[in-house]
Prior knowledge:
Low-confidence stretches of chain B: none
CATH class of the largest domain in chain A: Alpha Beta
Structural class of chain A: alpha/beta
Mean pLDDT of chain A: 83
Strand order of the largest sheet of chain B: 1-2
Number of helices of chain A: 14
CATH class of chain B: Mainly Alpha
Radius of gyration of chain A: 21 Å
Largest sheet of chain A: 6 strands, parallel
Number of domains of chain A: 2
Order of helices and strands of chain A: HHEHEHEHEEHEHEHEHEHEHEEHHH
Mean pLDDT of chain B: 89
Oligomer: heterodimer
Number of helices of chain B: 13
Amino acid sequence: MKTLSLSALLVGATLGVTAFGPAALADTSGKRIALSNNYAGNSWRQAMLKSWDKNGKAAVAAGIVAAADPFTTSENQVTEQAAQIQNMILQGYDAIVVNAASPDALNGAVKEACDAGITVVSFDGIVTEPCAWRIAVNFKQMGKEQLIYLADKVPAGGNLLEIRGLAGVFVDDEISAGIHEGAKENSQFKIVGSVHGDWAQDVSQKAVAGILPSLPEIAAVVTQGGDGYGAAQAFKAAGRPTPLIIMGNRQDELQWWKEQKDANGYETMSVSIAPGVSTLAFWVAQQVLDGAEVPKDLTVPFLRVDQHDLEEKLGGTEKGGVANIEYSLEDAKKSNLGHVGPRNYFRLARNFVILP
Amino acid sequence: MTHSALMKLSEKPWLWAFIGATCVWIATIIFTGGQGAGEILSAALSFGTFSVIVGIGQMYVITLGPGNVDLSIPATMTFAGVVSMKIIDSQNSMILTGLLIALACGAAVGVFNYGLIRLLRIPPIIATLSSSFLVQSSAIAYGRGLKIKPPPLLADFSTTKILGVPLLAICVMPLAAFMGLVLHRTVYGKSVLAIGQNPRAAKLAGVRVDFIRFATYVLSAVLAGFCGYVLSGFSGGASLNMGAEYLLASIAVVVIGGTSVAGGYSNLPGLWGASLFMFLLVTMLNTFGLSAGVRLILTGAIIVGVIVLAGGRKN
């Protein structure tokens, strides 16, 4: 509780809101927040739900909110999620936090919720409906960052293999656009092959194994997360030298990287969105309910792992999980203002995690 | 005459899958200038083997006649993979136990599926789809996204290649041949075919329809469990979405392989041709560097084309 009020004060200071002490916290103690989630079938989503659960339960126990109930649709269908949101409206939730199956197809349901006086906060899979809050990652920059790293690490350049995500999804287009933009700016790199790995290790392994025999020597593999380990397996199976593979913060990827690092000094970097972003969405919803002014569009920096802090971050990552940080509101505020870089941000977040 | 006509019926369809696979493979190596021809085939055989394993089960189910299909294959694979990998916990000594557990997981799902179909009288499509939600959720609840490495011996077994031919494919070939024999040479296999052609006639002829259907759904689920087990070994552990692409794949290889969707006529060799074809097709389109949209349209169009050709021969 001590850290809590300290953080709350910090938030208050950052926001410029006066009288933002323990008294303000009581305002939301009767409020109920629901999470509408469209998919749970991979390690990132599992970590995301776990963060929500931990954070939400602690918040309820501390009397900050009355409920923080997570709901996941079974089939990753827009219609199903729209119905789910409508149910939440009927159940009388005060705020709905959404990881949406589609950026625009849920707008109708979201508008209904807003009209019913419900606060809607979308994250990761954001919605375009103007009445909702959006917590997005600059996915384009996440792609570009990889090329910036490569330009520094492999100045001579070379051939790149690109592993994309799920075709037709906004996130996939954005990251890929960033990668291609980066490759254009660093013309010593040439993307010689591109496959869709659906952010899954086994799909990536299959796709890479298929295209690999037809490719010339590969200097590096640019990825979107959840695909690096599969790519490494495919290179190994084909008996080709392992190139520099950008990783995506999954524990199996970081573990593999660590093994290679110990064996032969292998160097790479890893970047992805932290699943704990769900907790940030939670706090944004709580703050909005509390009457605070929060901008509609927030940008979260991605979480990056480098050679020097690999051990630290791998150590803090659960087996089979994803490198994670649980967010607190002040971090998001600062990152939104652009004052905090990803690395400092990580340290900051570790120092100021509101609820252990 | 009738005999040779029947031979034509049962032999021709699988040829098309192999012809398709060969054409696609040649198109790919022309594009690459001959580079990697052998490696592409080797990779196709590696990944095709998994489609064949689940394809055999799906083929038996589809052969039972209209409306029979097993949509719980991906969930069963995931469930068996997750449970067996967690229990094995990367120990070589547990490999056999793990295999038995994976098969038992499959058998349990199969029994459950047929329970829904027979006792609750739910159509197979809906029964297996809804049971797949239960099974997938159990896998999520049990595994929680944990990726546990397979024991080194299993990983080696499933990735080793002998002169470019995957060891797993070498092991699955006799299994496939055996299942082909079972289908055409045993009472059980003949019963499956008979039910597919006319369930009423089969029943009147004394075929134990219920028991045969039960055994077939269990067989399909057991093979899915086996596939989940070896796939976990192959791809460095079980993941929650490992089965996802085998829903369409298991049905596609059966249909492209020349098995009648209406049931009653099966084609086991066609499964191999179709599995290679499906992998090589994606590889070809990836190699050409086409955009995702064009790739998906072409995949759909080519699959329809092959099915029409294979189906056209049958009439």
